[in-house]
C-alpha cells in the first residue's frame, strides 16, 4: 500500500468518527415524554426529602433509571450499585421485598 493510499484510508477513518465534543440530545419522543412526567411528578413533591422521594419511587418505579441517569449512572451502573449495596439489581424487586416485610 502506498503512502498516498494510507493517508487517504486514515483520512477516511478520521472522517467516519463521531464528534465526541458535542453530544446530540435524544430524539426519542417517548423517552422525552417519560422524562417530562418524572420531572413534573418531582416538582409536585415540593421539597424533596428522602421520605418523599421513597414514596414517589414506590408509586413510580419507572422513574428510578431516569433519576439515576440524572446523577450520572447508566442502567448497568445503577444495577451494580443496587446489587452491591442492597443485594439485588432490580429496583422493582427491591420494592416488592420491602412491601413484604
Structure description:
- It is a single chain.
- The protein is mainly α.
- It has a domain at 47-101.
- The protein has helices spanning 3-16, 29-44, 50-59, 64-70, 75-86, 91-100.
- The mean pLDDT is 80.
**Helix-strand pattern:** HHHHHH
What is Rg?
21 Å
In total, the number of strands is 0
Mean pLDDT: 80
What structural class do helix, strand and pairing data support? Answer: mainly alpha
Largest sheet, strands/sense/barrel: none
Q: Report strand %.
A: under 5%
Number of helices: 6
Distance between the termini: 69 Å
Task: Give the overall silhouette.
Answer: elongated
User: What is the helical fraction, as a range of percent?
Assistant: 55-70%
Q: Which residue ranges are poorly predicted, with pLDDT under 50 across at least 5 consecutive positions?
A: none
SSE topology sketch:
Layout lengths: L2 H14 L12 H16 L5 H10 L4 H7 L4 H12 L4 H10 L1
Annotation keywords:
101 residues; mainly alpha; 68% helix; elongated
Amino acid at each position: 500500500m502506498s503512502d498516498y493510499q494510507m493517508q487517504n484510508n486514515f483520512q477516511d477513518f478520521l472522517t467516519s468518527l463521531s464528534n465526541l465534543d458535542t453530544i446530540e440530545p435524544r430524539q426519542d419522543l417517548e423517552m422525552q415524554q417519560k422524562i417530562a412526567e418524572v420531572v413534573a411528578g418531582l416538582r409536585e413533591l415540593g421539597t424533596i426529602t428522602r421520605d418523599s422521594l421513597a414514596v414517589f419511587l414506590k408509586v413510580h418505579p419507572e422513574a428510578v433509571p431516569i433519576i439515576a441517569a440524572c446523577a450520572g449512572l447508566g442502567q448497568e451502573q445503577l444495577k451494580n450499585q443496587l446489587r452491591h449495596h442492597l443485594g439485588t439489581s432490580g429496583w422493582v424487586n427491591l420494592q416488592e421485598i420491602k412491601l413484604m416485610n
